[in-house]
Specification:
The protein is built from 3 helices and 5 strands, in the order H-E-E-E-H-E-E-H. The longest helix is centred in the middle third of the chain and has 22 residues, at about 65-85. It is an alpha+beta fold and about 140 residues long. The protein has one domain (about 10-140): HIT family, subunit A, CATH 3.30.428. Bound molecules: adenosine monophosphate.
Length: about 140
């Protein structure tokens, strides 16, 4: 899917927001929902998505929503750091299939990094154990 197009309400993150699909929830407020990535590129890979939004990518998000969204990203990133004590954190997002985007509801990746440890490939690793993701989500949530 290119940068142009219509929001598809059947995308997987819209289903998670509607409660039609499960997630290992880390955090929720009026603006964002955060949950564990099921194909994590590293231990603790967390996603932050805007609620009440039909932005497929960062370019489409309304400027009025950016403050709450970015505050949510920082809140969760700080909690990931406190819970897992990584050496570094990648915070990133992709816009359009050509850039690597695979789910077309705006989201930010928070990917902890440890010195000397390679991270998995984007959106092509193995599925994590749901029980382990729930434990990680609880550890991170406890630091918010
Ligand atoms: P992107 O490729 O930037 O659109 O990222 C989409 C991310 O969503 C990838 O890192 C996938 O591993 C992740 N993902 C896909 N389906 C789910 C799901 N049901 N729950 C949590 N994460 C998912």
């Amino acid at each position: 899917m290119s940068l142009q197009g219509q929001y598809d309400p059947s995308n997987i993150f819209a289903k998670i927001l509607r409660g039609e699909m499960p997630c290992a929830k880390v955090y929720e407020d009026d603006h964002v929902l955060a949950f564990m990535d099921v194909f994590p590129q590293s231990r603790g890979h967390t996603l932050v998505i805007p609620k009440s939004s039909e932005a497929r990518n960062f370019l489409e998000e309304s400027p009025e929503r950016l403050g709450g969204l970015m505050l949510g990203v920082q809140t969760v990133a700080r909690a990931v750091r406190a819970a897992l004590e990584p050496d570094g954190l990648v915070i990133t997002q992709f816009n359009g299939a050509a850039a690597g985007q695979t789910v077309f509801h705006l989201h930010f990746h928070i990917i902890p990094r440890w010195e000397g440890q390679a991270i998995g490939r984007h959106a092509s690793g193995g599925m994590a154990d749901p029980g382990e993701l729930r434990v990680l989500a609880a550890e991170i949530a406890a630091r918010i």
